[in-house]
Amino acid sequence: MSIHEQFAQIAREDGRAALVTVVQGPHKGEKLLVRIDGTSDGTLGDPELDAQGKADAEDLMWAERSEVRGDLFIDVINPDPRIVIFGAVEYAQHLSALARVCGWRPYVVDPRARFATPERFPDALGVVAAWPEEAFEQLGAPDKGTYIVILTHDPKLDDATLLIALRSDVAYIGAMGSKRAQKDRRERLLAAGVPEEDQGRISAPVGLDLGATNARETALSIMAELAAVRHGRAGGRLSQSKGGGRIHAAAEAK
Amino acid sequence: MKDVIEDVDRWVGEGAQVAIATITGTRRSAPRPPGAKMAINDRGDVSGMVSGGCVEGAVIEVADTILNNGGEPQLLTFGIADEEAWDVGLPCGGEIDVWVERFEP
Fold it and tell me: Is the dihedral of CA A152, A155, A157, A161 positive or negative?
């Protein structure tokens, strides 16, 4: 199977990999495919270049960014980001709908089987009626491409989810809740052995400050925060940004 | 790759020759990021895009040469600073590099 075809096959399976191509110099056109498990195929025509390409590929595969480094172009493919929403509540319905529109992969988890039904969440790619630990067994372990949003108001479920999330390297952990609920949560997590500095990873309350007045707008504010986090942005208004509203600036930053 | 894979698979299945154009770099303001792709076959069909329609014509010409005359892969640069700015360039004022090569199925 050609290197191109192997890369295409990983793209068809929605996998993660990098195709390194020499775009300048004597080895122009040579290719090296690097997979997520560290294995590779092909050669850039020079062992040093291969080692460099492999290191660059491993670096960029999780950054989910394609770029030129030296004479090499590292072309990265990755699955669409995954949102695991805890709490089969109304916000979760709207958030999963918005996630699909934006090309993300939403899943809904809630141990209360009466609420966690596929009928209530037609836009979710999966609805799991289970506690977090079992849910992640079914959905696949949390990884750097996973965003966790906790929308329950049930401390037991919140804490069970947070303890798993904080042990993982997920891209984002957000939790809904009032100031009071956050204070209580902080104390419970401290008691469970999670130090303050680790709790700093939790975004609470979730969302950007849109002044949302209904569940759909709240879901929009959460989706907007997720997109901003994914792209390393603060999430302000383009018209008031330093670049004078340069809408394509993201391409430059990459 | 995902943006053009369905069309590429179909074309290859029909026995067509296929070239792929990939954005490798952007400077200043550019509409699509590195990795974005356009696929072109030897019958003149096109899938996907590398800009907002500003430089596609020039990319297709290079792809044609690669497919029909056995040309080598090429790294192209487009920008407003080009001599050709009046017919090929990016109105948003940016520059893009595009790698064009034959897709080997």
Answer: positive
B24, B25, B105 member nearest A5 (Cβ): B105
Q: Choose the closest CB to B24 out of A29, A65, A73.
A: A73
Q: Which residues of A touch B105 (CB under 8 A)?
A: 2, 4-5
Which chain B residues have any C-beta within 8 angstroms of a chain A C-beta? 1-2, 5, 8-9, 20, 22, 24-35, 72-73, 75, 92, 94, 97, 99, 101, 103-105
Q: Which CATH superfamily is domain A82-230 in?
A: NAD(P)-binding Rossmann-like Domain (3.40.50.720)
Residue A46 burial (CB < 10 Å; 0-12/13-18/19+)? middle
SS3 A169: coil
Token pair for residue B90? 């990016």
A174-200 confidence digits (pLDDT tens): 999 888 888 999 999 999 999 999 999
Q: What ipTM was assigned to the predicted interfaces of this complex?
A: 0.88
Q: For residue B56, what are the domain limits?
A: 5-102
Q: How many domains does chain B have?
A: 1
Q: Can you give the residue ranges of every domain in chain A?
A: 3-77, 82-230
